[in-house]
Amino acid sequence: MKLQLIGTGSILTARMSASALVDDKLLIDTPNGSMKAMRRAGLDPCSVDFCLITHFHADHFFDIIFLLLEQGLQQTRDRDLVLIGPAGFADRVDQLFELSYPGSWDEMEDKVRPRYVEFDPADGGECSEGGYTIRALPMQHTVPALGYHITDPAGARLGYTGDTVRCPSVDELAADTSVLLLDTSFPTGRVGHMGLDDVEGVADQWPDLHLIATHRGDDVTHSARPNIIFPADGQTFDITAQGLRADARSMPKQRGDRKTSVLGVDL
Ligand SMILES: [Zn+2]
């Protein structure tokens, strides 16, 4: 499994908002600017066959319009584009298109061939698509949200929390994956988000698990825990059934310590 981080930041950072691409075709979240970030990284948005959305906040979702435009303006797909996310996904896409490009979705929809798999965010669920087994787990954020457990055909197991506080589903992912990407928005956890203190708690409990800290503010830069990785935008990892390949464990890239705040808004 090839894992590439399209973005690693939270809203008030110069890094792109957090999203990740698996094997150049399975995209997790479509935050603001993510299609431009893919192009800058030399990746083709038309190669995406599966798109997983954790929740409908703009910094995770709003570029869905541009993923669909990238695909519909360039090609008529010969197979479905599988869109997996919380219940209401299809309605949200209809509404966003009507707001942004009124009257254009019907024609685009025929070319893009979206097929939705929607899960109740209170329960989660499981599906198999393109050789991947994808399990959605209920997370605890300020809005209904899902995390994902992804197993590829070769048996590599990846977890992605999306935005959440530490909750039973985070531990469930940690117990059954070899690489886990976690919301690490702040030095300490706040409403709706884990902090580095929460992630270090997971690292201590599962010392053999590789944790990738993403959705980071600029004040989350390093940890004494050896199994927490602080990736840069665009960084790639190679994951096998045995776990993260040692030669793909890059050194963390440190950024500045500019302080940020969220001005009392729960994002
Ligand atoms: Zn959010």
From TrEMBL:
One of its GO terms (molecular function) is 3'-tRNA processing endoribonuclease activity. InterPro entries: Metallo-B-lactamas, RibonucZ/Hydroxyglut_hydro. Signal peptide: none annotated. It comes from the Bacteria. Residues 247-267 are annotated as: Disordered. Residues 16-215 form the Metallo-beta-lactamase domain. It holds the Pfam family Lactamase_B_2. SMART domains: Lactamase_B. Keywords: Endonuclease, Hydrolase, Nuclease. Residues 247-260 have a biased composition (Basic and acidic residues). This is Ribonuclease Z. It comes from Nocardiopsis gilva YIM 90087. The lineage of its organism: Bacteria, Bacillati, Actinomycetota, Actinomycetes, Streptosporangiales.
